[in-house]
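Write out this protein's structure.
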Amino acid sequence: MDQRCVFYRKPLLESGTLGTKGNTQVIIPDLTESYGSSQDPPEKETPSCTIKNFPNAINHTIEVRRLLAMMCVQF
């Protein structure tokens, strides 16, 4: 999508969420950097939607187990 917006010189509004945090980025060709050239900082935590819907790495499995253990301790 980013490459097409740059090619056709159309603005792009990128947005996302991580838990209760949100972010937006406005991309305007020839005025701001494109989405593909920017780098997000490393995430300090795994997004809950990844853990619930698509746990695809070992750290996701560990996080699921940790959350389940916390739930068992609370009861």
